[in-house]
Amino acid sequence: MSVKIEVPTLGESVVQATVGQILKPAGTVVKADEEIIELETDKVNQVLYAPAAGKVSWSVNIGDTVRVGQTIGFIESGGESFAAAAPPQQQKPSPAAPTAKPSVQPERLQADTRVTRKKMTKLRRVIAEKLVEVKNQTAMLTTFNEVDMSHVMALREKEQSAFQEKHGVKLGFMSFFIKACVSALKEFPAINARIEGEDIVYQNFYDVGVAVGTDKGLMVPVIRDADKLSYAELEKALKDFATKARDGTIAISDLQGGTFTITNGGVYGSLLSTPILNPPQSGILGMHNIVKRAVVVDDVVVARPMMYLALSYDHRIVDGKESIGFLMHIKKFLETLTSLG
Fold this sequence. Notes:
Helices cover 27% and strands 29% of the residues.
């Protein structure tokens, strides 16, 4: 009996994908629910699983574009015997007799190995297209400030043990910044808005995207209604998204929407950078490495753990005064924080 392998629904507004990897080549005997093929979309990669036990056959190749609902292969199911069947052992070829090395110029050999060509993944191509789109279609500017992390670090150290014991997750820095950003977005609503045609759409909700670096590219899972979540709920959501993004199991719906984005180059050691907008959003906050620097406090030079902050914004709807005020609000929020309440 033949069981169809079909392209499933890939998420809202996603109608096609590219065949990224064929995990089980034609002729392979697989078990039900075994990973068989990986599809790439403009949002995320998605693995399909065998709908039954049996022998796989494909009607597509790597790089082909496929559509939702399309039949891309079959499982030739022969009952339970397929589930326990092992792939046939291939006979090892007898070693070939050594042959003389072909006459090739050393210069040519050296040139051939100096470059490696690899086809861009669908995800990487879309990222590239969007970066160019942002550059061409927005009036992006970046403003900078710095924040003294002493209060946050002291509070984090004080609460860490009890926080982990109670909630089963570490108290990181990102939840503090999400809280600070939500507070600032309420004060400066244009940075939480977007342009739609000739209108400015002010969004009275706070769905904050947090950029996560993976081997396959940058992903931005979205924490919905971040203003309604506690520090513990934010940390649990961050941990879950980071795990799924790096494992390749994140859902497309997790990456859609978002009114504002935070990216943390500091985890890689970045001291300062200019983050690029995540369209159609009008603002993105860049966090950076925490470095002890000499600063003047009450006319005394002291060493403090400092972090540079960068806010990139769409100058078409956000003025310089608002962008500076936004960063000053975050700075004040973090430098005067005394509790998790």
